[in-house]
Design brief:
Strand content: 15-25%
Distance between the termini: 44 Å
CATH superfamily of the largest domain: Alanine racemase
CATH topology of the largest domain: TIM Barrel
Number of domains: 2
Number of helices: 12
Number of strands: 20
Helix content: 25-40%
CATH class of the largest domain: Alpha Beta
Bound molecules: pyridoxal-5'-phosphate
Shape: globular
Structural class: alpha/beta
Length: 409
């Protein structure tokens, strides 16, 4: 989103305030150009090697976003049968989708395998089941937990010793025993370290662990380093230097391939990196409450629509779209849910008045996909702006939607 010379915000030349008038507030708006730019940035950084992007679609499963990903040559990583179905609806073939479950019923894995998906096996019991069920007839990847803590926010780390995800690298002997017992075809090793990782170092560290582990698996075709690239939350924020990271990892990967004796494919599973910055959640100020302790700005949204700040303390930059150059004042921006739903404390914003439109940045990832109907509130509509045109890609919910599953009407 850009501030124009006329002191108004626009996305690809389109006025977001007008969109909220047309489609209602609150409103999620995604900028397709940002998604395209981020994907191109990643592809460019790894241009020298055989690299594939598997978008971790739990970040944003809007079908229009998934179709855009497919159009630009990005494949999918899914974590549930529902996400798998979304991928199919968006036009993906089963074999373009990786299923990375976390302790799911084995029947979900069966369904995914039968639909052609490749599975990241995340536990010894699942590996046993996979071997018993398929022997050497179906390939799979193994999700290794490298016991590395990275990213700084413990709530979004996924590869340290305490994490529930993957099979500990310390259990390698046991993994090898099960693989041998059933002649399981392991075609890849996977790891996902967590989110908001800025530097190449943690990736190199876990890559080294995977490369070392890889020596025990002769049939590998893929090394999957997961997602977690940090994005920009503030103007001027330190972000991952993709070119540098690409060079460093590519170099190490090429050395590994030489040692391994074959050219493998390198996979990444970014979620946030591809879609976070593309999205804004536009909300309307319902009440400005001048309290002796704090000035509260209430908006027509809350943890039901954007739970990240309350769930793991994430920062979302807030813009006053209605008054971009007003005098800065400190506010607590809070929701309308009957629960403490503070988006931001003591935040400097251009003077806020009732009726102003505010925008939460970085709302393209883990925004609507984490939303709920708490307090019997409706989920907002979604708009995608792509190739200079805005179109609604999800309508706002109605009471009827909420009553659909109630059986005691
Ligand atoms: C969530 C997830 C990702 C994406 O993480 P981001 O921080 O959004 O990049 C990648 N891989 C797996 C297995 C995940 O669960």
């Amino acid at each position: 989103m850009q501030l124009t010379d006329q002191n108004t915000y626009t996305i690809q030349g389109i006025d977001p305030v007008q969109l909220t008038e047309q489609y209602g507030s609150p409103l999620y708006v995604y900028d397709g150009a940002t998604i395209r730019r981020k994907a191109a940035e990643l592809m460019h950084a790894f241009a020298g090697i055989n690299m594939k992007i598997k978008y971790a679609c739990k970040a944003n499963t809007n079908l229009a976003v998934l179709r855009l990903m497919r159009e630009i040559g990005v494949e999918l990583d899914v974590v549930s049968p529902g996400e798998f179905e979304m991928g199919k609806l968006a036009g993906y073939e089963g074999n373009q989708i990786t299923f990375t479950p976390s302790g799911v019923p084995f029947e979900e894995v069966r369904a995914a395998v039968e639909a052609g998906a490749i599975v990241n096996v995340d536990s010894i019991p699942l590996l046993e089941w996979f071997g018993q069920t398929y022997g050497n007839t179906k390939p799979c990847l193994i999700r290794i937990k490298p016991n590395v803590a990275a990213g700084g926010n413990a709530k979004i780390m996924t590869a340290h010793a305490d994490s529930k995800f993957g099979i500990s690298v310390l259990l390698l002997d046991q993994i090898l025993e099960v693989v041998k017992k059933y002649s399981i075809r392991i075609i890849g090793l996977h790891q996902h370290t967590g989110s908001d990782i800025k530097d190449a170092e943690p990736f190199l560290k876990v890559a080294d662990i995977l490369f070392e582990t890889a020596k025990h698996f002769p049939d590998l075709e893929i090394i999957d380093l997961g997602g977690g690239f940090k994005v920009s939350y503030l103007p001027g924020d330190a972000v991952t230097d993709m070119e540098l990271l690409g060079n460093k990892i590519s170099e190490r990967f090429n050395t590994f391939c030489k040692e391994y004796g074959r050219d493998l494919q390198l996979w990444f599973e970014p979620g946030k990196f591809l879609v976070s910055e593309s999205g804004h959640l536009f909300v309307t100020v319902t009440v400005v409450k001048e309290d002796p302790a704090r000035n509260f700005v209430h908006v027509d949204s809350g943890l039901n629509h954007l739970i990240r700040p309350m769930m793991y303390g994430s920062y979302h930059h807030i813009l006053n779209v209605s008054n971009p150059s007003g005098e800065l004042k400190p506010y607590n921006v809070v929701g309308y849910i009957c629960e403490t739903d503070t988006f931001a404390s003591d935040r400097q914003l251009p003077e806020v008045k009732q009726g102003d439109i505010l925008a939460f940045a970085n709302a393209g990832a883990y925004g609507l996909t984490m939303s709920s109907n708490y307090n019997t509130r409706f989920r907002p509509a979604e708009v995608l702006i792509d190739n200079g045109k805005a179109r609604m890609v999800r309508r706002r919910e109605t009471m009827e939607d909420l009553l659909k599953t109630q059986t005691d009407l």
